[in-house]
Amino acid sequence: MTTELRVKELMDQIVAVIRSCSFVPEYQEKATLEECVGIAISKYFEWDTRIFIAFYHALEDANFHTAAAEVEALAEKVNKRYSKSTFQKAA
To answer: How many domains is the chain built from?
Structure first.
């Protein structure tokens, strides 16, 4: 199994958990995949500004370099204001 398929399998499980536990029953089917993944990331990073860093790396991985640079600048600004975590690129 490829890494991509394994990640998709695990993320589908995470989305199912978020969908069933984070939304009222009448909204569960309407909740988008992006909404569920976003909530999962927020919870995983405990509502910390590391969300921006993860977003940056996702954009870099997808070759959206210009958008990643914009997110990097925003992350640095937000980190100065709200967090002790620092923006660091992978080595």
So the answer is: 2
